[in-house]
């Protein structure tokens, strides 16, 4: 790979990406463009502008954008249509944000004539893979620079020395090492490393940042109603809301009731296991609600097919293959199934749990006429079941007859 | 089908199966053998003996058995090795009990020279299918009689008339109709019908029988430790327990903390949707614990394959295909994966939730040396990730290059 | 089911469906509408009109249609996009024709105010299921009449008596029983029953009707070029052709070279095994050609996902679930994959075999630059493979280290 | 990676691996152990001994072994139980041999106290991955040396210079470059590269080495009978044969009749497409025969599950994951299905094709009594089909009713 001439950096304004910014300038002597995205991580973005300017970035090279609506509409919602869960429990909060960041990095590179993009993910994690696969899928000519895999700033001390040496301001509270590492966006906050590294140790309460401890949540349950249209949440308690506002509102409910905490050991794509604490307050409610509305609007054929495709779909997102033809194929199948996933779900929120307690829909497939214990006026002929069972049993009988001969 | 001469009836001792008993005698003039199983449903069994005798069953034709250990060891545990969940949420508590009952019915039929078995499941539900597929798979010559599909006792009034006419004692509280219908065994209690028939109505609290309302559960969390060996729970808080005792103990913890309630609309195999309220206190804890121990003892290859097979496996059990070659194939694969699923999991139980908070195992695949944010002493070379990403990206780049030509 | 008033019958003009026609009139006293479709089965259709009139059908109630283009375009081609094969070998020639017939039956019923449709499939086969599931999926109110499951004309003798009794003309060669039963359409001819009933007996040569014996095929191979656009065959040897004409042309090539014979024992949906001889001359060539073009235009992600979905897709078609949401979901995924499946394939046809020998496409993903044994000018860095392997090996190493501890 | 001290080299005795041998000695100054395996590739092995000695290998460090029976029994046969095919057509002949070679390399390393193994696969192909994943899975401490990824002998000229410089004898016919590259073992011969690099060019006839051109094959078909036990071929024409002898015999039949040629473009695990010509004469017959016997001995539940697992299984073998827990899980499922796959299959071999024409088994599930067009004496009640269809249709009717409301 020849040296980059102009690089678009995913820039948070924090110490680590500021060091990367400076390192790109000094190591490659290249022009740096910064991209700072509001994904709902709950931080002010404007300080990133001042900091970038301080580090010598030209103002036309500083991009700060609010991508929250796009994030929820084009990434979070399609994923939730699939009820995607990785390894039985993880809602993919980090995984789903990476492709959007890469997409904007590549677009800004094309706009500004940059030949490379750079990110601050380490060489041990999944995020490097997600950033880079997405970038290459969108622009096969782009260069991707991953300083953590290249440089020799391999200890906290050396990083701080580099910062000092290059006049990068270091906040006092960043001089020591954080007791764990955090990633956040509107969908979730993940914490890992350091105090969490022993999976046999219970995570300290202070690790949690997005949710109250269920023990401190209200002692009375709260009931909310989530409205869906074609598989996407569109209203809460009857009020129509934009995608991002839906998720923000659910986040607030989840935070308050201590919903969506997960202590988890997962398998990274790069081959090792890691332990994290995830908080996905709104997403956890949304998944439960989506399942609730699917219960009455999806038939078993669609539902079972979706269930069988889901693990592969979730794995693709986790592994960074959002922009892959197979993810798009699965998405086409999933979206096809959502045409009638429209209606409302009532959920009970209480001390860490979100539970569907009622659901209603004009598109419902539930037929009280068929299922009733009462007289069903001929909707269903119980005698049909005899034939149904006989033909389902036929091969089992033939097997049993055969197998008896060889006992 | 020629008329049966001797029938083994799955007999609970309750009104409905007593009516069936008498109906078999009068309709077919055949000898009836009763089989009453203790599956941990929490009812006295001996009254069933007295009642059967009263209805004219010879004492050598009355079989009352405690099958709880067999139930948990040979049915519940194998199923939990798979983390089986039907349609995203249901733990299959009713489904998994049916094959065991059919197995004993068929065995008793062979022992007593009976040519038929009979059950009390209706023509609208899944249980008829489960009973009958299992029976035919175990004995292809057996006749199965399902009175609810045959007789004309299609209303409560006619049932009671038949009972009166044949001197079947009717308990006072059975004269009226129950507000919902119940099935119970050691794994769960399910309630459906009547007051639950409208899925848009919140289920009344009195439907729940096996768990306290989370709101009434203790205000302080309780922590327990579940020990596993080869995928099966073998101890609680360090005390070795038999399969049934493990489940009973977890049930007691679950009951106390309001764990395992599910309000659910599902797709029956016979083609309609139904709504049920399930309570699976111990099973819910067990599933969470099993996942917890798999997190550190199963690698991603096994885990992801298991996840992708699970929906099919769960569907087979739900649909009544426990005794099918494909369920046995899947079981062989799943059991193969459990050889090292050994260790302990710590769970927090609190107001409706069971959450893994720590896990430890001599068989752990978690490598702190690899994952650490600190210096890993060469366990992992971050530069390897660059090649890993490049080769994973290669096809995406080729795709992007191709697709650009056709934009 | 109340008695039908007006029935649309799938009518071939042959003896069996003529008997059904008359039986519907006499049994139900209902008006009969006949629908005769040209699916490319290679029979004159107009005689069916005369026969229907002779049997008293009003001319406005006689529908004779050429549906060949629709058949290939909307049924055969979508199925071939999936490379659908049932149980490893069967190309689904009968299965794929049934939904189209049912669709037209239901449409004609709606047009003519009929309340029922009828078909001539027996109660042992798959076709009854396919006809009826399609009909119900398209019109949930329609009645379906399956005379073979209802009447008592259960022997050849009684059928002929009924024909005689009702003045149905019986061709001389139909007085005896055919040595096997045949179904044909443009995609294939299937033969089963009678002389084929013992799967240990080699099928007599005279069973084959659509293909010459490979031993009698030309001694010189013939090469043809099939052109594809978005997964569908659109030209042969450079000449653009309509869907039906493509298939007819391939059929002629296949017939001449003895291609597409299959002697097969399959599992019917109704639970039994049956043995059939299939001839799918053009379809066999088409499948090979489609695979050939996918080899260079589909990436591994799409291709492997397609392969893994295919068995389920084929089973759905075989079992009669063409008009089901899950088939449509799979179709959406498959069609999504075909956007660049465009190009040409050269096939060698010789004595029973069709083999891809060359393929070319502007949409090709094949990169000689990457794969070459010669100097690749930096297209591919072999050192990347080391990192790729290390990270793929990491979990295997951790497993091996763990497993060694327990030997 | 520290420098290896003693290396076990997969040594063919050919020029390339002789150069590697010498390079390992000169580059690392390490002791070299050679392992030469007879996998049925059809070459004399003893010359490899002389050549190794000539290159200075001590006689106790030269391992020459006939592993043909192990290869077929423990690798080829388990794979054929699965009917494994990669990307619809490739029988995995190269892929399945690599794990066995790695297994012996690692075992010999442990026996001789070597700390490394080495292979002659390039950095562009799949074989490096297969060799190395297998080695690491069997011994996580082993070093693997892949000279083609390390050295600078990147052209034919430099290789020959190195050979000359180190007194490695070069056969005259090796001075020029071969027009394509070959890998062979008892299961297949693969050819790729050079004259085959353009997939739009028809492969020259001289590329084929293991099969006669179908046009030159006998003009009369030949019929053979293959006997199976539990899924493995155990006899031909009634004569019991060892695993390797079965395959050799089938190879001879296949060679003679021109069976098993495949011109194929496949997706390599490392991300690029490549084109190869494969000849798998005996394997192609074996696959057809195995399917033939499964047709009558496997029920649909097992068969369809096997079909759906197969693509994943084949991908695992292709990608080098033979020694992975997920392959072993799938194998456990597949082997479970083969318990009754016992019987005989008659095949017709003719000019490139092997076709099942008859099959017989004491374990057959085929029931003429059920399938017959004649009177079946009550084996099957056609009326059962009505109920079967009604319940299968129920959800489709409910869907249709629902969907009509939204048109």
Automatic annotation (TrEMBL), chains A, B, C, D:
CDD domains: ASS (cd01999). ATP binds at residues 10-18, 37, 120. Pathway: Amino-acid biosynthesis; L-arginine biosynthesis; L-arginine from L-ornithine and carbamoyl phosphate: step 2/3. It is found in: Cytoplasm. GO terms for cellular component: cytoplasm. Its main location: cytoplasm. It holds the Pfam family Arginosuc_synth. Residues 180-398 form the Arginosuccinate synthase C-terminal domain. Keywords: Amino-acid biosynthesis, Arginine biosynthesis, ATP-binding, Cytoplasm, Ligase, Nucleotide-binding. L-citrulline binds at residues 90, 95, 126, 130, 181, 190, 266, 278. GO terms for biological process: argininosuccinate metabolic process; L-arginine biosynthetic process; urea cycle. It catalyses: L-citrulline + L-aspartate + ATP = 2-(N(omega)-L-arginino)succinate + AMP + diphosphate + H(+). One of its GO terms (molecular function) is ATP binding. PROSITE patterns: ARGININOSUCCIN_SYN_1 (PS00564), ARGININOSUCCIN_SYN_2 (PS00565). L-aspartate binds at residues 122, 126-127. Its EC number is 6.3.4.5. Belongs to the argininosuccinate synthase family. Type 1 subfamily. This is Argininosuccinate synthase. It comes from Pacificibacter marinus. The gene is argG.
